[in-house]
Amino acid sequence: MCYRSPVSYLQKKLAAIPSGSGALFFIQIFATLGFAVLYSTLVLYSTKHLGMTAKQATALMGVFGAFNYGLHLFGGYLGGRFLSNRNLFVGGMVAQVFGCGAIALGTSSAFYWGLALFLTGSGLNVTCINMMLTQRFAPEDPRREGAFLWNYAGMNIGFFVGFTAAGYYQATEDYSSLFIFATIGNFAAIVLAALTWRTLRDLNTPLLEAAPKAFRLRLLAGLGILVGLVPVVWYLLQEPGSTSTLVKGVCAAVALALVYLTVRHDDRREQRNMWAYLVLTLGSLAFWSLYQMAPSGLQLFADHNVDLMMLGIRIQPQWIQNINTVVIVVGGPLLSAYFVRMRARGWKIDVPQQFSVSLLLMGLGFVVLPLGISLAGADGKTAFVWLFASYVLQSVGELLISPVGYAMIGKLAPQKYQGIMMGSWMLVTGLASLFAGDFSGMIPEPAGNTALETNAAYQDLFFRLGVGSLVVGAVLVALIPTLRKLITDKAEDAATEVVADAAVEGAASGK
Fold it and tell me: What does the pLDDT read at residue 509?
């Protein structure tokens, strides 16, 4: 038997990884830290340090999410066309460094400029990591899926560390140190990118085909867009209510355009798939609108109305977000293995089913909260176990709906509309963030009120939202047979047409 040392085995495994993939894993961890800190702390910082009302803070959080997800699409267009993906990524991280540094100053004016810098950076550079990673593999390379799973794991490590650090500093409300920590994390991502600069170069983008003069002009235009977006975002952040209305109007126009394209589309099979996409997108909007209440309305509820003492230690509100992180990391592989086993036994588990169950789980996740409130103690504080159960149910729902979303677009979108439909799917997440801000704005102002005084309002809101999600989920359950008929691929459609032709011929011959 030939002995193979652990070192040589590890070297062989590492040699099989495309150059740059390992670096991107670690870059993803540090690049996520700043976003995790701001995502989990924005509402608490706005209310406790800047003195905003709960309604103002949750509206700002809604706009934060809308800009972050909306700019992902814009960043995907800029990267590889005006700036290389590595240049745009580093430029975005530099903006995030200055953004977190400005917020650490602790003043209102610095906060808005810091938020504008951070959102511009995070919005534009997130797509760049995915683009740099996907270029490391040939289209048919089976290792691509594994690389993205590792990258996803790196992102969740970043979230876990960021949420944990945010909770640690939240205990003393040392927000300045917290945002300095986020600045260091963002800067570390820049350092790692600089150390692997040559490895992370673009391999196949339209920018590489540009002549030297055109390349320089695109570079200047890209830098101009990156810098020019900051004051635009700053201006729109000043009036989150008006900005929310503007974004909702844009989303409504996109929805009408998609309906028009679907009605006018001449390929019947593709048209049916597009109708299924529109129905499922509405279900997705309902799910994410409640899911994104976690860093706003649910966090304020946890901070003021939930008994967060466990074994003599107070659970910080940001730590609660890690329930989702752990469920996703641990539950993802388990759920995938379970689906493989059930499908092998003949169970039909498909997209309409998964979307329906995810909405039912989301509804249950919100309905358990009024039950917990009704069993609150004499001080009005709800037991933590009810909030824990809510987050677990929501996270399992996310496992059912999130991974299949983008894959669904590849199956349902006609080739010429794939860009539009992918963009609209990302817009749905941004729109859901605005609705989450609206729902969170309905919560009572916690300042000066006890849990006993605000419990009734929370109970009513959570019950109505939970029932609403259950109703949407039930409607999707009823539509499962219809959606299954609408969703067909070419092979299925061809088989259907053969059967239909045979039936017509049989009828014509009197059989």
Answer: 42
- Bigger pLDDT: 136 vs 213: 213
Q: What pLDDT sits at residue 489?
A: 65
Q: Is 381 helix (H, G, I), strand (E, B) or coil?
A: coil
Mean pLDDT of 5-28: 66
- Enter the DSSP assignment of 306: E
Question: Under a CB-based contact definition with an 8 Å cutoff, are residues 436 and 65 in contact?
Answer: yes
SS3 382: strand
**Domain coordinates of the chain in residue numbers?**
19-238, 239-488
CATH superfamily entry for domain 19-238? MFS general substrate transporter like domains (1.20.1250.20)
- What is the number of residues in the chain? 511
Phi–psi pair at 346, nearest 5 degrees: 100, 5
Domains 19-238 and 239-488 are alike in CATH topology: yes
Task: Yes or no: say if 125 and 68 are a contact pair by the CB < 8 Å rule.
Answer: no
- The answer to whether 212 and 35 are in contact (CB under 8 A) is no
Dist. CA 99–CA 67, nearest whole Å: 15
pLDDT at 161 over 70: yes
- What's the CA gap between 188 and 26, in Å, rounded? 10
E-strand ranges in 135-216 read: none
Judge contact between 319 and 167, C-beta under 8 A.
Answer: yes
Torsion of CA 73, 76, 78, 80, to 10 degrees: -170
Contact between residue 286 and residue 431 where contact means Cβ atoms under 8 Å apart: no
Residue 313's H or E segment, with its range, is strand 313-314
Choose among 393, 82, 116: nearest CA to 230: 116
pLDDT band at 346 (very low <50, low <70, confident <90, very high): confident
Contact 401, 354 (CB under 8 A): yes
DSSP 477-510: HHHHHHHHHH---HHHHHHHHHHHHHHHHHHHTT
Q: Give the CATH fold of the 239-488 domain.
A: Growth Hormone; Chain: A; (1.20.1250)
Q: Which long-range contacts (CB under 8 A, 24 or more apart) does 331-337 make?
A: 331/395, 331/396, 331/399, 332/399, 332/403, 335/396, 335/399, 335/400
Give dist(CA 134, CA 122) in Å, integer: 19
pLDDT at 497 over 50: no
Contacts of 479 (CB under 8 A, 6+ apart): 279, 352
Q: Strand 306-307 relative to strand 382-383: parallel, antiparallel, unpaired? A: parallel
pLDDT in tens, 37-78: 999 999 999 999 999 999 999 999 999 999 888 888 788 788
- Is residue 166 within 8 Å of 315, Cβ to Cβ? no
